[in-house]
Amino acid sequence: MSDNEKLQEELNQYLTFILNDEEYGVPILTVRGIQGWEKTTPIPNSPDYVMGIINLRGEVVPIIDLRKRFHLETIPYGAHTVVIVVRIGEEDKQRTVGLVVDGVADVHDIDDENIRKTPEFGKQVNNDFVRGLGLIDEKMVIILEIDQLVDWQKVPGGNAEIDVLETGGASVEEGLATTEAA
Amino acid sequence: MPNTDMNDSSMNEIRQIFETECSDGLDVIEAGLLALEGGDDNLDTVNDIFRGAHSIKGGAATFGYTNIAEFTHVMETLLDKVRSEELAVSPPLVKIFLQAVDCLRSMVETMDGGDYDIERTEEIKTELSSWLDKVPSSDETDLEAGAEAVNLPAEFHAMAWDISFVPASSFLLSGNQPQHIFRALAELGEVVVTPNTSAMPEMSEFNPEEMYLSWDIELIADVDKKQILEEFDWVETECKVEVTEREVTPVDSENQRIADRRAMGGGTDRRQGSRRGGKKDAGSIRVDIEKIDALLNLVGEMVINQSMLNNQFNSRNHSEDGGSTKQVGVTASAELDQSLSLLERTTRELQEAVMKIRMLPVSTTFNRYPRLVYDLSSKLGKNVELKITGENTELDKTVLEKIGDPLLHLIRNSLDHGIENPEERVAAGKEEIGTIHLSASHEGGSVVIRVTDDGAGLNTEKILKKAIEKGLVEVDERPSEQQINDLVFHAGFSTADVVTDVSGRGVGMDVVRNNIEDIGGRVEVHSERGKGSTFQITLPLTLAILDGQLIQVGSEVYVIPLLSIVETVQVDLERINVISGSETIYRLRGEVIPVVDMRTLYKIPELDSLGSYENKQLVIIESERRRIGLVVDALLDQHQVVIKSLETNYVKISGILGATILGDGTVSLIVDVTTLGETAREDTAGLTQH
Asked: Closest by alpha carbon to B460, among B483, B437, B491?
């Protein structure tokens, strides 16, 4: 197999995981590793879904709880709780983050023609997070738009300019953080 | 006009190197001129200046910047007169040279586009020439020689080679590039390349694949003919090369030196001896700072891994102690222990060595100031001497870059406000010439930079009056002298009677303080009325590593930069007061210190509320001239920690300087003391502000 073919095949591969009994998928090329849950160091002034930071081979990596991110009911972390480490973001600013999920499921090949456009979900899952629905035989996998998982503008100090413009009067805490970053 | 037949990227690369070399050369010239101005009549200094000008000229000619080459040539010719002592050094001469340096600098800066003041440049050039006319002409140096101008006065060089390089017309077809050869020759010594375009056809007949140029190369280097010919080995069949040695006339001390070195068979330092860039480096290379940072990161990792290994070994050893260990086990573990401590030492040394790569002597920044003092003192009509000591003290490059402007401001300030007019000085029984002393030294684990002047000192009455006007101090308040002096660092504070363009816009000192605190440093002022002031800056050696105090709050461990900790005390409940139910203060030796609880500060839910202050520690930190007491559960070790930015994978968080990885592999946050001050100020506004 040539390198090109191999890449093409990998482009269509998705790592799937379970979250609240649904199967979700992320492009396998974005995945940097899978590891168990470990205690994090909490970061102040951060959204509740950011559990804190860990040491990943010398790199300081934030951990995001996907259940909290999707406003799902939280469950205690257990032996099966898994952190999927992914690389997200645009070319110029890529970040490594860990995603806490219920458990890893499988690796699937899903061709682009088998990915359907997302219908309106309503409240439960924000449409911005979903790229499409992947069909594998009778099964359905929710393909995530992982670049959208963290709204950096909502993190105090994440993108000060926009934040200040849009919200005008931020809370004292946020105000402090944004002026600091500006 | 730059030579355009070289391909663009390599041309750009070379041009960049040339640009850096030019600006290095200009720095050398400027430093030398200021030394001459200061009464240094050493011939070596003149030689340094001459060499600086000479290599700029050579480079400019090579890259086709005739304007720079011609201008430098006039400078060089005049400098040569100074060297041969036909022309005496005088302040007006130094002045015109300094102006010439400015012209050259703007020419170099606008090399790849942009305009420089051509009129001004011509003016200076004419003035330089007129100086030349004042010298009784003793030799045949001809200013108007045009392209010949880039050739060097022959009597100057010890080993001069004339190389005629005539490539065949098919030269380019085989992928040869003449610039590679020129570059290789430049490695040997100084080259002056003069292109010969006489074979160039009309545009209509021009075949871009054919070579029409030939070159005359002048090489000044301590090499033999064979070495030169080696550089042409690759293109031997494609060109005609003739190398002839020019006569050597050892007329001056420098030639003597080179001759001496040759006599001693000192071929070993050929590069140093022949390269007359004016830089006294013992062989150096330019490396991308990113590469060094990557290396630093890796070593940081290694230090962490190393201490993890140590921890594991210690805990295992500990558990084994409890049981019945066999003799063999004990010996093995003792050996392991030894290897581990050996590894630890090597790792530390490696880390230090890598850190040192980023270190530069402060002189790289200090060298900017003599010129500033020279210009300003003549502008202000003051007589000021700048004394610099400790310029070899090394600091991290990033720190160094960031103290440039604050220092500039402090020196300006001393000149403008500190040092009095000559008349006032005489009247006060001082020497007419004022002194500003810029010094750097290692003190403890930090570098201390001081700007001391022997001027009038801070006018405490005026400062106090102004502070009361601005409402910074209550009318009936009686602050101590030191407290009054500290007011100069307050935003929008300036006591200058007249706002000058030198300083006194009131945007100075607080910016100075902020900039210095941003890089983890501290600034203080000590002043004595009538005797002068000292501004003292304490800086960390580096930004990548800091000395930290580990503290514990609940189950979390945080790091506080050791440099900002004034002291730590065990909380004495008697000394705590809660004002209007919310603000907590601590009375320490008559001082009232606002207290901040780490738990509420970081608003981390897992850390339950403190409840009682009993048995807690109070870490007194100082930031922006204010003291704050930080309540923590326990003090742990002090450690050197490697700072990791949170922004790499997350975002900058207010109140957090960064994170670090501790010896056990866990991540710990580093407290940003500067923003802590702001937070605390918000909390306690009204209490200590007015």
From this structure: B483
Supply angle C-alpha B30, B35, B37, rounded to 5: 95
Those of residues 348-367 in B touching chain A at CB distance below 8 A are none
> Is the CB of residue B100 less than 8 Å from the CB of residue B76?
no
The greatest distance separating any two alpha carbons of chain A, rounded to the nearest whole angstrom, comes to: 58
Q: How far apart are CA B618 and CA B344, in angstroms?
A: 33
Of A42, A155, A172, Cβ closest to residue B651: A155
CA dihedral (B397, B400, B401, B402) positive or negative: positive
ipTM, 2 dp: 0.78
Determine, for residues A180 and B297 on separate chains, whether the beta-carbon distance falls below 8 Å: no
* Block residue for tokens 């103290």: B403
Angstrom distance (rounded) from CA B613 to CA B632: 9
Is residue B223 within 8 A of residue B243, CB to CB? The reply is no
**CB within 8 Å: A44 and B603:** yes
CA distance B242 to B441: 55
Q: B473, exposed or middle or buried, with CB in 10 Å at 0-12, 13-18, 19+?
A: buried
DSSP B60-90: HHHTT-HHHHHHHHHHHHHHHHHHTTSS---
H or E element, residue A23: strand A22-27
pLDDT given at position A98: 94
Alpha carbon distances (Å) from B459 to A92, B412, B527, B529, B605: 52, 17, 9, 7, 50
* Tens digit of each residue's pLDDT (9 = 90 or more) over B608-622: 555 677 788 899 988
Q: Which pLDDT band, with edges at 50, 70 and 90, does B487 fall under?
A: confident
Q: Sign of the C-alpha dihedral, residues B335, B337, B340, B341?
A: negative
CA atoms of A124 and B561, how far apart (whole Å): 45
CB A85, CB A96: distance < 8 Å: yes
Q: Tens of pLDDT along A15-69?
A: 999 988 889 999 998 999 999 988 899 888 888 889 999 988 778 999 999 998 8
The set of catalytic residues of B is 54, 76, 413
> Please, are residues B597 and B629 in contact by the beta-carbon 8 Å criterion?
no
Q: Are the beta carbons of A41 and B669 closer than 8 angstroms?
A: yes
A→B interface, C-beta within 8 Å: 39-46, 50, 53-55, 57-62, 95-97, 152, 155-158, 172-173, 176-177, 180-181
Sort B264 into a burial class: Cβ within 10 Å, 0-12 / 13-18 / 19+. exposed
Q: Are B239 and B166 in contact (CB under 8 A)?
A: yes
Rounded Cα distance, B466 and B504, in Å: 14
Residue of chain B whose alpha carbon sits nearest to that of A44: B602
CA separation for the pair B73, B251 (Å, rounded) = 21
Distance from first CA to last CA of chain B, Å, rounded? Answer: 64
Q: Which of B 581-640 lie inside 8 A of A, CB atoms?
A: 601-604, 606
Which amino acid belongs to residue B601?
A: L
Beta bridge mates, A41:
A53
What is the per-residue DSSP string for B555-582? TEEEEEEGGGEEEEEE--GGGEEEETTT
Contact A155 B659 (CB under 8 A): no
Are the C-beta atoms of residues B619 and B560 closer than 8 Å to each other?
A: yes
Which residues of chain B lie closer than 8 angstroms to A152, CB-CB? 651
